[in-house]
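Record passed on underneath.
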Amino acid sequence: MRRNVSGISLRKGLLLCSIAMSFGLPAAAVAQTSGGGATPTTGAGAGSSAASGNSASAPGLSKSTQTQTASIEDPGPFFAAPMGATHFFGDWGGIQPWLQKHGIHLLAAINEEFAGNVTGGKERAYSDAGQVGAELDIDWGMLAGIRNFWTHMLVVNGHGQNVSRNFGDSIAGVQEIYGARGNVVAHLVSMYGEYAFFHNRIDISAGDIPVGSFFAASPLFCDFMNVAICGNPAPNKYTPGNRDWPSGNIGAVIRVMPTAHTYIMGGLFAVSPHAYNGGISGWSLGQDGLGKLSTPVEIGWMPTFGKKKLVGHYKLGYSYDNSQYDNLYEDKNGESYQATGLPARKQAGMNSTWIILDQMLIRNGAGQTNGLIAFAGAMYTDGKTVAMRDHEWAGFVESGQPWGRPLDTIGVMYQHFDMSHTVALQQEASQALGVPYISNQWGNVYGVQSHENTYELFYSAHVARAMAIQPDFQYIQRPGATTTFKDAAVLGVQFTVVL
């Protein structure tokens, strides 16, 4: 990994997606796994305690089959366990080595983000938002002899609110961590089991899973504070079938790797009709109305180029949700439902697609992200039922090795958001009728929405073991995707520590 200051990314977003997309520690990105997803912990360069999957013997295979497959290249486990050596309190007085010897990986982290707009927006405002998270990952091969089987659980406690809502922008919140996470001591983010076989070429996970921790995920996203990218890109994570931090969907994911550098991944998830999956606390997994399904699929290529093994990740994905959703503008006759008073037309199904890529251009040292990396991507979803039609982004991140600060990171990113034509028709109808604008998946609306641009620059400085401070600057053009408020300049700082 580029730096070891945080073993997580509890965004998402512990602390994407920030231990996204995803704990959600933004500056401490989630691990890029050998598959397409991102586990809720880091440690891709940290050595994996699931190495039992690297054996030439695979459970469930006959001896002759094992012999035939012994030469198959093992891409390594999908899950990379947290690095115990990167805790602020060291080895916890000898507790961490004992836990890891028994396959128990316990991680706790704190993330605090302060931000305020110095110009523009509806009003001058500032906010502190933070999160405490704890992650428990168990290698049951080491603990109980059940080879290649892991369980994962992540809980968080949050406080504060995103300052963007105060200055009139609900599209691209400048803080990725915000909200009380249900006003409970431990809000459940994820809880699932994982089993790998056939030399880790096939990996199956099932349980309560944030969809964005596997699909359309990248460890680079939560280097940035803006929640539109951390730990999983908008608009998908705001749709019921593809929820991400701090919500999960009941479901399963299977990842198959035809080669050590390619994968095919598919999922099947229950779609919750409720505002909060698992209730506001996340623990109410037996919610009613879970009859519909979302089915994301993703293919990926992870090449390395040249003698320095410049690593890249190239992903293409699609998701379909077979639920019915209200058209944002039309009634059954194709007219404005606000004007006619008739119910909104029901739309069958919701589609989304994405393309994500990153490529290391210059290597500074060992690790998948230790160098200058260019990244870009785009995501599209149905504009008739989702207020945001598409989202594009591009940027660079660089580790601090060239200037003698190998654990530091600097990054810059541009994001563009287009709101849907259908939601604009809805808002124009509200305007013509003299009624309040209807809020959407992103929150309050202050005018007819069209598009928004954001620019972000950060520098994350490693200041102590497992601790970083990250000054951050963001410029928001057309806050709320309207011209109602002036462009906003936002200064922020983020503090992260893995205990």
